[in-house]
């Protein structure tokens, strides 16, 4: 091989490469219409996923543009909407769940830039992210949040801030209560979504491209979840549901933890959250409703939310796991199936808190009789032995859910709303708590607390007074007089529509 060839060969390849590049460029330019068409059609398919499309200019840029910066003098606001049919404006804020637009963060401290005074005080917006324990002062300080007049913004925050686009959900708590299926899904996520979904009202006087009023389905999903006080897996539950279900409900949406916060602090710059919700358990208990229901989401009940506001999450959870979203008709039957209404008894007989064994057997016997009468199909899943997908598939088709107070009843988050849907929560008498009642009210299911032979239930707007824990609340000899449950299920599944207890 001579020197001549050695120098010629790379040149030859370079020549071929360059020609190919010119041909490709020419093709692209002369077929740009087709290329644009292809890109557009792809993009409109993506639109169906409704995850990243933002109305009213809020959100992710579709095309790449130069990074934008925000002036730090732009004022922070709490969004509010006009409730339909009234003159009432409702702010997307309650203790423990606060939506703030243009919320600034620098070196781990939030800043509300405002020249007015219409904000709730700091101790109603945020708290220290320490564990809730006796004697620990959780009231917020200048480290957590400061109010800043726009005239001082430049001096404290610098002239510009990096924009964090979209809707950021900031769960400003340690892992203490998060790592529990009920606390995560039944309080934090549902409370977040209840407050956020109130913003759908703001769209009712607008119309979308087809002229139809916007609905909860058009609310963009969060862009990210931020858990600044949580290290790695501290937010995950033992049963292993929190994590996978978050990926199913919010596919492609990151869940960032303490290291993210630390990264931002190290940059020594200011960021501006386009829209953020700050969630905090300590503050949620400052709401007067918390003294009635003793639940983190109690205060969120004070906001008027659109009917069926949970549906987008339920749909997303089911589409991305089971692959479909069963709907139940007024008779309690899954539409487009030949099945009877499904009654699911979640047995906890393998767990700590459980029924007297004979009472469990009697309950199973009476529920099986309902099946023999042709009123329903009975499912008695051992949830802990099923895959997540199998668990969700059962919840998704259930019209009536029966079980001892406990995590299994959180599966009602998957149950379709319907006239006849109901949850029977068996408690050791004379106990009463609001955990699953609160969920049932939000989901549109009738709730019955079962104290042995007594059903305790309340119409809309009325509530049990106080909580009660019997000594045997967590015990393994919880009594239940099965006929009261079986009889009420029979009534709910057979009575004419107008008679079904609401
Ligand atoms: C950032 O916050 C840390 C911890 O609160 C503090 O020690 C440090 O001085 C702050 N840095 C700047 C530049 O303000
Ligand atoms: C919220 O609380 C206020 C003040 O207690 C009360 O007047 C109002 O009716 C409540 N709204 C809802 C929707 O619960
Ligand atoms: C439960 O109810 C049944 C039927 O009324 C009754 O016979 C039984 O004594 C009750 N058990 C308890 C522990 O209250």
What report would you give on this structure?
This protein has 502 residues and is an alpha/beta fold. Helices cover 30% and strands 17% of the residues. The protein is built from 13 helices and 17 strands. It has helices at 3-30, 32-48, 150-157, 181-197, 242-249, 258-267, 281-284, 290-293, 311-319, 357-372, 388-397, 435-443, 482-494; strands at 69-71, 80-82, 89-91, 93-94, 97-106, 109-113, 145-148, 160-171, 224-226, 255-256, 270-279, 342-346, 377-379, 398-404, 422-426, 446-451, 454-456. The strands form 3 sheets. Strands 1, 4, 5, 6, 7, 8, 9, 10 and 11 form a 9-stranded mixed β-sheet that branches. Strands 13-12-14-15-16-17 form a 6-stranded mixed β-sheet. It is globular, with a radius of gyration of 27 Å. The termini are far apart. The model is unreliable at 1-7, 33-57 and 207-213 (pLDDT under 50). Residues 429, 452-453, 479, 481 line the site of one 2-acetamido-2-deoxy-beta-D-glucopyranose.
Key structural traits:
single chain; 502 residues; alpha/beta; Rossmann fold; 2 domains; 9-stranded mixed β-sheet; 6-stranded mixed β-sheet; 30% helix; globular; disordered N terminus; binds 2-acetamido-2-deoxy-beta-D-glucopyranose; membrane; transferase; protein O-acetylglucosaminyltransferase activity
């Amino acid at each position: 091989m001579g020197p001549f060839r050695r120098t010629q060969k790379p040149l030859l390849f370079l020549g071929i490469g360059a020609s190919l590049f010119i041909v490709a460029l020419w093709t692209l330019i002369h077929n740009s219409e087709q290329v644009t068409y292809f890109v557009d059609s792809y993009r409109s398919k993506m639109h169906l996923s409704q995850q990243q499309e933002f109305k009213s200019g809020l959100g992710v840029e579709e095309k790449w543009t130069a990074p934008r910066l925000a002036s730090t003098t732009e004022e922070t606001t709490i969004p509010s909407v006009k409730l339909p049919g009234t003159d009432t404006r409702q702010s997307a804020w309650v203790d423990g769940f606060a939506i703030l637009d243009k919320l600034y963060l620098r070196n781990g401290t939030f800043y509300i830039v405002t020249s007015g005074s219409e904000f709730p005080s700091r101790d109603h917006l945020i708290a220290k992210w320490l564990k809730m324990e006796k004697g620990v002062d959780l009231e917020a300080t200048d480290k957590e949040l400061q109010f800043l007049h726009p005239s001082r913004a430049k001096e404290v925050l610098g002239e510009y801030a990096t924009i964090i686009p979209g809707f950021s959900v900031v769960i400003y708590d340690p892992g203490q209560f998060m790592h529990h299926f009920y606390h995560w899904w039944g309080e934090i996520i549902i409370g977040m979504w209840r407050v956020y979904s109130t913003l759908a009202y703001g769209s009712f006087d607008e119309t979308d491209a087809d002229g139809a009023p916007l609905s909860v389905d058009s609310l963009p999903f969060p862009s990210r979840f931020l858990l600044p006080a949580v290290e790695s897996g501290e937010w995950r539950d033992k049963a292993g549901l929190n994590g996978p279900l978050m990926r199913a409900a919010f596919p492609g949406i990151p869940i960032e933890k303490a290291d993210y916060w630390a990264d931002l602090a190290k940059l020594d710059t200011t960021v501006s959250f386009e829209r953020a919700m700050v969630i905090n358990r300590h503050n949620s208990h400052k709401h007067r409703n918390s003294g009635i229901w003793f639940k983190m989401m109690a205060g969120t009940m004070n906001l008027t939310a659109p009917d069926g506001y949970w549906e987008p999450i339920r749909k997303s959870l089911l589409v991305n796991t089971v692959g479909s979203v069963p709907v139940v008709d007024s008779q309690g039957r899954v539409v487009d199936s030949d099945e009877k209404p499904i009654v699911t008894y979640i047995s906890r007989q393998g767990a700590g808190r459980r029924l007297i064994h004979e009472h469990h057997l009697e309950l199973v016997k009476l529920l099986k009789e309902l099946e023999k009468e042709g009123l329903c199909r009975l499912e008695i899943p051992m949830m802990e032995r099923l895959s997540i997908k199998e668990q969700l598939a059962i919840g998704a088709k259930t019209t009536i859910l029966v079980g001892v107070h406990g995590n299994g009843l959180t599966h009602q988050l998957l149950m379709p709303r319907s006239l006849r849907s109901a949850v029977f929560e068996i408690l050791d008498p004379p106990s009463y708590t609001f955990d699953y009642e609160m969920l049932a009210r939000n989901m549109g299911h009738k709730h019955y607390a079962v104290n042995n032979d007594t059903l305790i239930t309340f119409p809309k707007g009325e509530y049990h007074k106080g909580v009660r824990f019997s000594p045997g609340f967590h015990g393994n000899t919880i009594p239940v007089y099965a006929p009261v449950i079986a009889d009420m299920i029979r009534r709910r599944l057979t009575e004419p529509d107008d008679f079904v207890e609401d």
